[in-house]
Write a structure and sequence with these properties.
The protein is an alpha+beta fold and 414 residues long. It is built from 13 helices and 8 strands. The chain has a 4-stranded antiparallel beta sheet. A 4-stranded antiparallel beta sheet has the order 5-6-3-8, with no helix packed on it. The radius of gyration is 34 Å and the shape is elongated.
């Protein structure tokens, strides 16, 4: 007799539970979408737009208002002057208008044909403006006693302007020039090589130093807690403080490192550690290893202390050497956490900007992709090209993550 096969998720209770689960997850999903997906989509959008730093502000009509002439007695003649201009030198503005309320006691003598006056409400239709247009409207007025009594001036009620200008961020203009620009010549591939060198050696070095530090502190001894705290110092210290400490320490003129090397006879002249190729790249990589090995140290030490010690006792009784115990017992137990740390550290190091920017500013052969984003967007003022480099970074990291996860899944038999 065959048993009936259970039906999963078919009943009304299961449907209500599914709706409740999605309802509870919705705030998290919405938060992730707002924090992660929307900025990511905006970067993709900007990478295909010919936008520079000055284009982030849409063109607008800039107006300044004042009164010129005699304004001391009744019957004096004066001119209300409006100086207007198109804020953009390469984009037009359509449907430009000017609205203002004139102070009480000013009698308008003549009016520009494009303007109308309803009691004290002034309205001017100035049409369409070409890029960089400047215009001055002059309205002759005569003063009455009311103007002298109330003390109001035309600029006390600022004029309002309207106009429609095309915004490059929202229009239908797209281009591939941003990507073509960053891939021109050998510059991009040189920057990519520097980024890979910095990322791979910085990640592997941080893992190895963290593993070595975890092995040192895996046994209990007096002062172990103090030493653990000292190991965490590079990671918890402010990056700007430790970066400038390294710059002072390795300064070619007054640094202690150069003075010590010269006194020991290692070198006859000062070394510019952060100003010479390829030494600068090696130094920023060493800084990356020194600053971020404590994170690996914490995770690896926690995993080491959770390993059953009976295996090591049995191996010791069988005559296994310390290296054999480490290689055949510890390493297989640590592969999981080492894989996760390698993936996270690779992504974080690939995206690292502040360390290199503080130490070298991207000079002396230390220009990485993230520094290139900053230079394209702010030094060259090409926001579109900077976003294109960010898209390339995203593509590189996404490809690496997919390949890495596939490799890990195959190794674990998933």
């Amino acid at each position: 007799m065959t048993k009936p096969r259970p039906v999963h998720g078919a009943g009304p209770l299961a449907k209500r539970e599914a709706r409740l689960a999605w309802g509870l997850l919705f705030p998290t999903i919405a938060s992730v979408a707002l924090v992660v997906l929307l900025p990511l989509l905006s970067i993709f959008w900007i990478s295909f737009k010919p936008v520079e730093l000055a284009d982030l502000r849409a063109p607008e009509v800039v107006a300044r208002e004042d009164i010129r002439g005699d304004t001391k007695a009744v019957g004096d003649q004066a001119n209300i002057r409006y100086r207007l201009r198109n804020s953009s030198r390469d984009k037009p503005i359509t449907g430009v208008t000017l609205s203002d309320t004139l102070p009480l006691g000013l009698i308008v003598q003549t009016l520009d044909p494009r303007c109308t006056l309803d009691e004290r409400a002034l309205f001017c239709d100035l049409g369409d403006w070409d890029p960089g247009t400047r215009e001055t409207l002059t309205i002759p007025v005569t003063l009455e006693q009311a103007y002298l009594t109330n003390g109001l001036r035309p600029q006390d009620s600022p004029a309002t302007t309207t106009g429609t200008g095309s915004n490059v961020l929202t229009n239908d203009t797209f281009t591939l020039e941003n990507f073509a620009r960053i891939f021109q010549g050998d510059e991009f591939f040189e920057v990519l090589w520097v980024t890979l060198f910095y990322t791979v050696f910085g990640t592997v070095g941080a893992l190895l130093v963290g593993l070595f530090a975890a092995m040192l502190l895996n046994k209990s001894f007096r002062g172990q807690g103090i030493l653990r705290g000292l190991y965490l110092f590079p990671y918890v210290a402010p990056v700007i403080a430790v970066a400038f400490a390294w710059l002072i320490l390795f300064d070619p003129f007054s640094g202690s490192a150069n003075a010590l090397l010269i006194q020991m006879g290692v070198t006859s002249e000062a070394i510019n550690f952060f100003g010479e190729r390829p030494l600068a790249l090696i130094m920023v990589t060493v800084f990356e290893i020194w600053r971020y090995f404590p994170l690996s140290f914490l995770f690896i030490l926690a995993r080491m202390q959770s390993i059953d010690t009976d295996m090591y006792e049995a191996a010791d009784m069988d005559g296994a050497s310390p290296f054999q115990q480490f290689w055949y017992l510890s390493v297989p137990q640590l592969l999981g956490i080492l894989s996760v740390l390698f993936l996270l550290r690779f992504i974080w190091t690939f995206n690292k900007f502040d360390d290199i920017f503080l130490l070298t500013g991207g000079n002396a052969g230390t220009r990485t992709l993230t520094v290139n984003v900053y230079e394209q967007a702010f030094d060259v003022s090409n926001i579109g090209a900077g976003a294109a480099v960010a898209v390339v970074i995203f593509g590189c990291l996404l490809s690496f993550s997919i390949l890495f996860m596939k490799y890990i899944s195959r190794e674990e038999g998933l």
